[in-house]
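Input structure tokens:
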């Protein structure tokens, strides 16, 4: 028995399957349809610093992170945990204070933010890019300086 080639299928192909896939794919959201991004910027900054200090799980921030930012944060958190373990230092909740922040909107539904945070040992900058996806903000890029 011969197996028919994919082009010989009796069912006519239509664009409806592609239309359905695009309909259920993540959808970009305009900035005017999204909530204020500032509370998320400040809370995510503190959350990232707590993850790196070892007192918060990365999974708790997953809903606000894009895939690349999530993977980068997991890698950095694992390196921090290994460094603490090698020095024999226990994880301690950091006391950080937001000194300043700067936002810019390079495109509709995109916000880039830099937050300057003072900690007990040093002052750091956290740079983030937020994009509107499916009616909420998601951090698609994250850098801790």
């Amino acid at each position: 028995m011969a197996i028919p080639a994919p082009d010989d299928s009796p069912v006519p192909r239509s664009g409806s399957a592609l239309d359905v896939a695009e309909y259920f794919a993540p959808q970009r959201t305009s900035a005017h349809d999204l909530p204020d991004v500032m509370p998320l910027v400040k809370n995510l900054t503190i959350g990232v610093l707590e993850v790196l200090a070892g007192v918060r799980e990365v999974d708790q921030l997953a809903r606000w992170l894009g895939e690349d930012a999530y993977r980068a944060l997991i890698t950095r958190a694992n390196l921090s945990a290994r460094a603490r373990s090698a020095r024999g230092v226990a994880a301690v909740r950091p006391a950080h204070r937001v000194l300043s922040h700067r936002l810019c909107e390079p495109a509709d539904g995109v916000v880039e933010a830099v937050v300057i945070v003072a900690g007990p040992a040093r002052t750091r900058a956290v740079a983030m890019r937020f994009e509107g996806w499916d009616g909420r903000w998601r951090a698609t890029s994250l850098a801790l300086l």
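The first helix runs from residue 16 to 24. The two ends are 64 Å apart (CA to CA).
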